[in-house]
Specification:
InterPro entries: NA-bd_OB-fold (IPR012340), REPA_OB_2 (IPR031657), RFA1B/D_OB_1st (IPR003871). GO terms for molecular function: DNA binding. The chain starts with a strand and ends with a strand. The radius of gyration is 36 Å and the shape is elongated. Helix content is 19%, strand content 27%.
Length: 448
């Protein structure tokens, strides 16, 4: 059975416009002499060749394919070959030559941008509480020039795009929009942000560029932290040596919610220290035991990104890890970590352990008294007793029995203005007179 000639290289040789292909064709001619070629001219005037020869031509052509049908006829020599083969080749070249826009040149109002970026960070934004539904997925991306930009995936596109997003992955992004950056809680510097949508196309890049940075941060010296307490324009990034840390411990918050907490102490090159507080999933994700073991033989240098400066009742400023918080520990390819490590010398000190009281221990320490017992306490004789002057009232209620509030009228119990943060959310506090306390059920108690 014979086949139509499909090898377009012969066409190019006929018009004599490719010296490199001539060499291949000459080799093909020498090979043809060893093949018993029996070809003839069909009634349509087309030359046919044996299948063995056709197969040789195809295998010797580096861009060979079997796409479509052999419908293309050369106007110079009447050779027939697969036109889609050429389309495949040209499409690949066009993709390689497609304009890739650097992040620094992105502007609002243009929707034809194509960018190639590395996903440096990903986090889920739930709102004030991690138990709330995801409002959007947040990203920090970096391009080949080292420019970093914040990107956001809305909730209706998360299910479509999240499977393709992974920290460290390099992607080509199309069908994106550019907007003005948000006024607060910005993870990177810049005037614009990327908005992805459910029509955004994310494609893997092969081969991956080797020179796209993995990390981005803007380090803030410890001495500048106090003046950033109420500044929420940017997240805070810091670097320091870990000197102490705690285990992830369940802690009861002011709202009565039990969450995991971990404390980490950092020291800069000048000996200044700052405390980093991680809550919830961030406390669990931090590999405390591995860090502690590493400190027995080496300094542990860490960069924390995505934190905020806080103070509590006039305390020293500390950092709290947000949902955007990440940490990079003893990564030699980060020049800032390498320089910090070199500056502090070779002798290392093991990390100290910080002990936190967990929620159960705190609950067991609560002192309970009846109101009659409270009445008998002389505050002048118990100055060292840690009893708050205003306390929430707790009733021990038996089955099918109403609390003894009938001893007090609404006029006798007046709402009190107190520091609500000291007590669980939802507690009601009232001021009563000494006479009313004396008639309360003796099972009534308070929690100090």
């Amino acid at each position: 059975m014979s086949y139509l000639l499909t090898y377009r290289l012969i066409c190019r040789q006929e018009v004599g416009n490719n010296i490199g292909k001539k060499t291949i064709r000459k080799e093909g001619i020498r090979r043809k002499k060893r093949i018993n070629v029996d070809y003839s001219t069909s009634s349509e005037g087309m030359v046919t060749f044996p299948s063995e020869y056709i197969q040789y031509l195809k295998e010797s052509y580096l861009e060979k394919s079997y796409l479509g049908k052999p419908e293309y006829k050369c106007k110079h020599c009447n050779a027939i070959f697969w036109f889609n083969e050429r389309n495949k080749c040209m499409t690949g070249r066009n993709n390689q030559q497609m304009d890739i826009t650097p992040l620094s040149q992105l502007r609002p109002g243009i929707y034809s941008y194509v960018i190639i970026v590395r996903v440096s960070r990903i986090w889920k934004f739930h709102g004030r509480n991690d138990d709330e539904p995801i409002k959007h997925l947040d990203l920090v991306v970096i391009d080949q020039q080292g420019t970093a930009m914040y990107a956001e995936v809305p909730d209706d596109a998360i299910s479509v795009l999240q499977p393709h997003l992974k920290e460290g992955k390099i992607l080509k992004m199309r069908k994106i929009s550019i907007g003005r950056v948000k006024p607060s809680f910005k993870p990177v510097r810049g005037l614009h942000m990327i908005r992805l949508n459910d029509k955004t196309i994310l494609e893997d890049v092969h081969p991956e560029p080797k020179d796209i940075p993995k990390y981005t941060f803007f380090l803030t010296p410890f001495m500048q932290l106090p003046q950033l307490e109420r500044n929420t324009e940017y997240f805070i990034d810091v670097i320091g040596r870990i000197t102490a840390l705690s285990d992830a411990t369940p802690i009861s918050t002011n709202a009565g919610i039990v969450r995991m907490k971990r404390l980490i102490h950092l020291m800069d090159l000048s000996g200044n220290t700052v405390e980093v507080s991680l809550w919830g999933s961030r406390a669990d994700e931090f590999s405390g035991q591995q860090v502690y073991e590493a400190s027995k033989t080496n300094h542990v240098i860490a960069i924390f990104v995505g934190t905020l400066v806080k103070t509590l009742n006039g305390s020293r400023p500390f950092l709290i890890g947000t949902a955007a918080c990440r940490w990079y520990i003893n990564i030699p390819e980060i020049l800032e970590i390498k320089a910090f490590y070199t500056s502090i010398g070779q002798e290392s000190q093991p990390i100290q352990k910080i002990s936190l009281e967990n929620a159960n221990e705190v609950h067991n320490m609560i002192e309970k008294k009846t109101l009659l017992e409270l009445r008998s306490i002389d505050p002048f004789d118990n100055l060292t007793t840690n009893l708050p002057p205003l306390v929430p009232i707790q009733f021990n209620i038996k089955d099918n029995q109403a609390p003894p509030t009938h001893h007090m009228s609404s006029l006798d119990m007046q709402p009190m203005e107190i520091d609500q943060s000291r007590y669980p959310e939802g507690f009601q506090h009232y001021r009563t007179t000494k006479e009313h306390i004396s008639v309360l059920d003796q099972s009534t108690s308070f929690v100090s």
